[in-house]
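Async update (no meeting this week)

Hi team, since we skipped the sync, here's where things stand on the single-chain job. The sequence we agreed to prioritize is pasted below, unchanged from the tracker. I ran it this morning and attached the output directly underneath so nobody has to dig for it. Comments welcome in thread, and please keep replies under the output.
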Amino acid sequence: MSITHIPGFPRIGKQRELKKAVEAYWNGDLAESELKEIGKILRARHWQQQADAGLDFVTVGDFSWYDQVLDMSATLGVVPPRFAWPGKSPTEAEPQVDLNTYFRMARGRAPEGKPAHACEMTKWFDTNYHYIVPEFYPEQAFSLCSTKLFDEIAEAQQLGYTVKPVILGPLSYLWLGKVKEGDFDKLNLLDKLLPCYQQILAKLHQQGIEWLQIDEPILVLDLPAAWQAAFQRAYATLQDSTLPNTLLTTYFDDLGNNLSLACQLPVSGLHIDTTRGYTNIATLIEILPGEKILSLGLIDGRNIWKTDLNALIEFLTPIKEKLHDRLWLSTSCSLLHVPVDLEQENKLDPEIKSWLAFATQKLAEIQLLNSALNKGTKKEEKSLQLINDAIESRKNSQRTYSNYVRERVAGINESFVARKLPFPERIRLQHQQVELPLFPTTTIGSFPQTSKVRHIRQEYKQGIISEEVYRQKLKQEIAFAMQKQEALGLDVLVHGEAERNDMVEYFGEQLSGFAFTEHGWVQSYGSRCVKPPIIYGDVARQKPMTLDWISYAQSLTDKPVKGMLTGPVTILNWSFVRNDLPLENICLQIALALRDEVIDLETAGTKIIQIDEAALREGLPLKKQQWAHYLKWAVKSFKVAASGVKDSTQIHTHMCYSEFNDIIQAVAAMDADVITIETSRSDMKLLDAFKDFSYPNDIGPGVYDIHSPNVPTVDEIVNLMHHAKERIPLERLWINPDCGLKTRGWEEVEAALKNMVKAAKLLREQV
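Output:
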């Protein structure tokens, strides 16, 4: 039998227990000791699930209160100076990063400690998970300042488990961080950093750890030569026969040009993701030194379809004959990216449910694969047959195919993807249609999803209130949001999205080809969880999706109200997507459905329509050679959705928590009249890309960090906009928050928007 393990397991709990506990702690409703006890219960449950599934190791170190990269920063003592740390334990040799300092770094505020500007947050490679960006300074030092990992290892060992800890490797940690002051190469910090990693390995050895998983996901990127050389130097330094065996772990793509490098590193084993490319497996096996373990990530850790285990057995049989016990079996990456347990889904269509596997079911798939690969019994044969039947059912289901949709996609031509006039001429027409001051103020779309709003939605879902009553109550919430905006003095209003549970799920519920779960939650960042819909069939609009709500809101005011839509690329990237069609085809299906909605909104009199593409950068392939193809169809999909309107209709788009420097030409090619982006956490530095490229259209740089409870002052907003004016002509600048406001409370939202409007007035006076 092969060794089986996983790179990580979802930490949130199948009922989102972690989210609820952390938020209760932030709100002062839960003591720190109570929070830690809930974490202990969740860890024990997840370890037991792995042991019950028959895995040879339980993974420890994948649990986090907020983010695993932030955990590494805490472990290494990488705390920015503004957080006034060392913390509570000055008597210790190395002060410990306490929980409140940790949360202040993540979100700017905690139950204890002075509020501060939160650390930057951005996407984890090409996923919808967000990590907290490490900050590096000229005099950066590293020292072990958290015992969290070692404490959790002891916890698991006391419960009798065989433990495989996981840590983020030194090169990936540096790569993911940013230099915040000075002008120096962060790679030069490696020599300072490695002694800390040596200390970590020594402590793990003292705890009796046999195998350590070191994640180095940047090995799937196109690395500069200096970073490739640094890998050889770093792992030669960490090599020591008295320390734990190291399983160097990569995921999200194949090793590409780093294949030979990874095989030659002085580590005990190598884990690779075969679900995103195993074209070079034969070469890898050929050059992998004879003493090294090869862990294959065979079960997709980022999608929810049952695995074709029969095909994998055929694929693995010759590999097993060659590697014997050097072959380990695993998931492609941490199961952080999929929901916890399919068995909770009692309302999901039985046929569609039979096609799926969530994290818990994927544990069983690993063990079934292992048993079957080693000539399993009739029990395994029966289980394999059931999986095969489900796969064939999905392949042959008429529910997945529509002639009408396929013909519409085939009919897309150049007329679908271009506005008639260039932006300078369009913007004059738009200014004539909607008169706005300099520095127009607006928000990104959503307003607080209060307990009252959620209760209304729940009552309707449970059949307690009729649709008529439901709609009337939501109209009252929309009217409330409109009154607030009028009173605040915003220039372009939004209806607040009281009717929407989630910016993707809401649209998916009204499109054919989508299925939905009750408990399919996945962590996006911190305590924020999303419930991605499942695209199982061809996509089409059944009826108008937003028209009634936007039209009602517009009837309440003389100011322009934006129509609010989620873009095709974002709907695609934030869903679990069918794997039997090219992504390009699925995205164009969604784009056509949205195009119909955009045209309906314009016909009804909506003068400004926002099509959010928050996930455009996120979907960028990790290999640069694949960028051009992706960006071509992604931009085309947006333009299909947006280009059916008159030139006098203003199209906005929104992108959040992304680096734009390397795709700025594609962003410009989208030709949105106004783009709003996140910039407050980066102090407007993300706008450098728009300046260097001379981005031609209007921009709304976010001045209010909505992922922090801190309220920006008027001076802070004015200062940020002065930074923006250095990069973008002032006549093309809008003022807005970083993102939607659904996760915030009305009290802080009102205070922040009040300051935002005041700042806009001050800026107009200064011109």
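Quick observations from my side:
The radius of gyration is 26 Å.
The chain has 27 helices and 22 strands.
Reply here if anything looks off.
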